[in-house]
């Protein structure tokens, strides 16, 4: 276990905790006090760290995600959903603008041709955000929403193209999670860069 700890950079005490919680499968027993760990344990520790440290997920949720990863009867689509939606908020319902936001989200899914389940957490999240924007009096117009959705569609397709090049289920889950959590932060930064560039072109004032 000490070698596994050095290779994974995960403390021995943490590895023992993961073993007790059933997140990490036990090694091959070689003596009463020794066990052999292999590459599969390193991969699993990498995925657990991604879920806990990058995704910020509680252990109970990590256990649920790993159960989907380990179950060969859970298809990739469902497994990815349980992984990605584990870190997806659903919002607060939308308040007095809920119906308007609901109609806008339905119009966007029709515009892009998206096929999603009615219970998808991201739908609730989108409705909640749009409702809050209406409440603040700064909701985007229809064309802006459509352009945002079209950009999101291209990004989503690129995400799945990247995942499609991976064969290992654990690596698929890890890639999807990291791309979702850190990818969202990267996209936000790229959006700010684009905003600055377009602003400088449209409203030149000679100042840096």
From TrEMBL:
InterPro entries xref list: DNA-bd_dom_put_sf (IPR009061), MerR-type_HTH_dom (IPR000551), MerR_fam (IPR047057)
Domain of life where this protein originates: Bacteria
Domain named HTH merR-type: residues: 1-68
UniProt GO MF annotations: DNA binding; DNA-binding transcription factor activity
The keyword Secreted is assigned to this record: no
Keywords: DNA-binding
Family annotation (Pfam families): MerR_1
Annotated protein name in UniProt: HTH merR-type domain-containing protein
Organism per entry: Pseudonocardia autotrophica
